[in-house]
Design a protein that fits this description.
The chain has 497 residues and is α/β, with parallel strands linked by helices. Helices cover 41% and strands 12% of the residues. The two termini are 42 Å apart.
Length: 497
């Protein structure tokens, strides 16, 4: 795989491979046939040894497995070679397929009498997990979505609360009033017993499923790192009810599955129930998301004026999410994951030919920020949004329609907005550098074997990796004008929502 890659990506992959080999040498008790489940010990994930990760959002993986398995294999091979081995995926989407701005075909539908899960696409989930297992990848499996781009909670409200009350879709991704109307409508999910009962029923069907490819029950598959309630289950004005739903659902899952972690998928401390839900005994780790352009901090068409402002606000937001938990003795100390962040290409281009200079700088800033907290064991992982890979937008900057390539941008958003393509060499180098750093953290925290030759071999591998690091970033500096170095001033903070 590496031989077939181009320039910088090949070097990045080689560096990550060397560091991964050093990890294998240290983990002499590892058995590929009996991989461990990810567990939590205080603020740290463990999987044979301390587990830190750089992953990506691959929410469309199930659909890709059904509709284009050859591309799925290529995408997973590329991600594996780069060291990106933690994928956040979406298990369901809701119909009807006549609704706008949605993933199609949907996985869950109502035929006028019964609610039906599309077995063909559940087999797609089987395929995705089976292929990930071959590559020792881990999946964060989201059951559902608060937002309308996959049907989500809004569709449940329409089905179970009032079918004559249509979903008030935002006109476009910049329609702030429309999003407020949608949230006012969708928060009724948390107070609807039929919605909650159906949600739990679907979640348990997935947890109880037996993979039709591997014949391994999902409950017994360590490829699944965690079950996640939903993508961004925003409580809006219903924090107390949302927390009750989280606790009830989590306990239902843990009653039948004692192996896997459970997380919420929420966005951070601005949510009204964030700390109450994080602190539930049943929840194993916390999550937060940071979105510079969505929050109004950054304008890619005016990056000179807004980039420092975006970095300043992102710094404050990350710091607040982490330190408000770590410095509060009343809160349980669990691992934290920054599971969504992204930035547009320069001048808001949408194609691989458009520059990623600011995007690369921003990724570097995020990784440096996370690394500083990782050294304290205050943050354990990060997932960028999102992997576009081999896909290309049919209508760059337009909405997704059925038949278009799946890329990292959901159907309702400008296609190509946040996607990382397989040919974004400078961005992939930035990601690979962070992966190697996280791998070094794992090695340093693992108890070294007593063998002189093992330690000697690891030192040689580390030295080679250092040379490759220098090689990669000397090459990168020719493409990108360096990493963020300007001193960040003080900025006021604006609510994301």
């Amino acid at each position: 795989i590496i031989i077939g890659m181009s320039g910088l990506v090949k070097k990045a992959a080689l560096m990550v491979l060397l560091l991964m080999l050093s990890g294998v040498m240290l983990d002499d008790d590892d058995d590929d046939k009996d991989k461990k489940f990810v567990q939590v010990d205080g603020k740290i994930f463990y999987r044979d040894w301390p587990y830190y990760f750089m992953g990506t959002n691959f929410w469309y993986g199930v659909n890709l497995a059904v509709e284009n398995k050859k591309r799925l294999i290529k995408e997973l091979d590329t991600l594996e070679s780069l060291g990106i081995k933690n994928l956040r995926i979406l298990a369901t989407s809701q119909g009807p397929d006549t609704e706008p701005w949605r993933m199609k075909p949907s996985i869950e539908n109502f035929n006028g009498k019964d609610y039906i899960l599309n077995e063909r696409y559940l087999v797609g989930l089987d395929i995705l997990l089976h292929e990930m297992k071959k590559r020792d990848m881990l999946a964060v499996v989201m059951f559902n979505n608060f937002w309308h781009w996959s049907g989500g909670f809004g569709q449940y409200v329409n089905w179970f609360v009032n079918s004559s009350d249509p979903i008030p879709y935002p006109k476009d991704q910049n329609d702030k009033e429309g999003y407020q109307r949608y949230m006012n409508y969708t928060e009724r999910f948390y107070s609807s017993e039929p919605c909650i009962e159906h949600f739990i029923s679907v979640a348990l069907k997935i947890v109880n499923r037996v993979n039709t490819i591997s014949k391994v029950p999902y409950k017994s598959d360590p490829t699944i790192m965690s079950w996640e309630m939903a993508n961004e289950p925003f409580p809006h004005h219903s924090g107390e009810n949302a927390t009750k739903w989280i606790d009830r659902t989590c306990k239902s899952i843990k009653k039948i599955d004692h192996n896997h972690l459970v997380a919420i998928g929420n966005t951070g401390y601005l949510e009204s129930n964030y700390f109450d839900s994080y602190n539930l005994d049943c929840i194993d780790y916390g999550t937060f998301h940071v979105w510079a352009q969505n929050a109004g901090w950054y304008d890619p068409k005016n990056d000179t004026e807004t980039y420092k402002y975006a970095v300043g606000n992102a710094t404050y937001y990350i710091k607040s999410n982490v330190e408000l938990i770590r410095n509060n003795t009343k809160l349980k100390q669990k691992p934290l994951v920054l599971e969504e962040f992204g930035l547009a290409r320069d001048k808001e281009g949408f194609l691989p030919a458009n520059s990623t200079r600011r995007k690369d700088d921003y990724y570097s800033f995020i990784f440096q920020n996370v690394s500083a907290y990782m050294l304290k064991d205050w943050v354990s992982g990060v997932n960028f949004w999102a992997w576009g890979g081999l896909g290309r937008p049919t209508h760059p900057g337009g909405n997704w329609t059925l038949g278009d390539d799946w890329i990292g941008d959901p159907p309702h958003e400008n296609q190509g907005w946040y996607s990382v393509y397989d040919v974004d060499e400078s961005t992939l180098c930035t990601i690979s550098r962070a992966i190697s750093t996280f791998k070094i953290y794992e090695i340093n925290k693992h108890k070294l074997p007593g063998s002189f030759w093992a330690v000697f071999a690891i030192s040689i591998i580390g030295a080679i990796a250092g040379v490759l690091l220098d090689w990669i970033f000397r090459a990168k500096e020719k493409q990108v004008d360096g990493l963020l170095s300007d001193k960040i001033g003080q900025h006021s903070f604006h609510s994301i929502f």
